[in-house]
Amino acid sequence: MHQSSELWLKLAWTEAEAATEHLRGGKVAPALRLLRRSSLCLRLVTEQLDMLEQMSPWEYQEVRRVLGHGSGFDSPGWRELRRVAPPLGDAFHELRRGEDLSVADLYVRGREYEELYQLAEQLADLDERASVWRVRHFQVVSRIIGDRVIGTQGTPVEVLGRLIHRRFYPELLEVRNELTALSKASEGDEADVPGHGR
After folding, report:
1. Would you list the domain boundaries of the chain?
2. Among the listed residues 40, 41, 31, the one whose alpha carbon sits nearest the alpha carbon of residue 6
3. How far apart are the first and last CA of the chain?
4. What's the CATH number of domain 2-183, 1.10.1670.10, 3.40.50.150, 1.20.58.480, 1.10.150.20?
């Protein structure tokens, strides 16, 4: 399971890195296809964690002894994904700024900038998949070895719980709050217009 996870993670980060190169060349469509594949890899890696829960906690102790200091957050694939995520976000923001759009503007005027909108949503999807993996990883570790023990890397398991809130692209999550506030503000304006606000 660990070996196949590393293969999926390798595909995830190499596709994200290739997508970044497409974006730097101004080509959004091929980047979108690669990012969909990258997100799917993260989904598959997350689903594979279910296999670990089919072992008893005592049986897993035998596996744990041969893991050494390895941990899920320290896997080569996960480390590489964290490395390629920031340049991918930078390439997206460079394209967005090239159109003189804030993140909120892009969502409000998405129909005019369909490819950029789809790109923002694909980055949000990749970020969400990574976040779901973090949560699921924490849950599996807690279920198998406990939530108040020291992990294989020498880090207390509860530290994993604090890491689950990290995001690659927090601005793509935060913009939802901004859009909701904009919508509420416009509802107030529409309440004065006949036929609105009912």
Report:
1. 2-183
2. 41
3. 55
4. 1.20.58.480
Note the pLDDT tens digit of each residue in 116-160: 999 999 999 999 999 999 999 888 888 888 888 877 667 777 777
Q: 114 Cβ partners below 8 Å, 6+ apart?
A: none
Which helix (H) or strand (E) is 88 found in, with range? helix 76-98
The string of pLDDT tens digits covering residues 58-76 is 888 887 777 655 556 568 9
- Nearest by Cα to 140 from 60, 80, 75, 52: 52
Q: Rounded CA gap, 32 and 102, in Å? A: 20
What is the share, in percent, of the chain residues with pLDDT greater than 70?
A: 90
Q: Residue 126 half-sphere exposure, CB side, CA atoms within 13 Å?
A: 31
Going by C-alpha positions, the residue among 112, 111, 130, 138 that lies closest to residue 172 is 130
Token digits for 20? Answer: 């970044």
Structure tokens at 195: 């036929």
Longest dimension (CA), the chain: 71
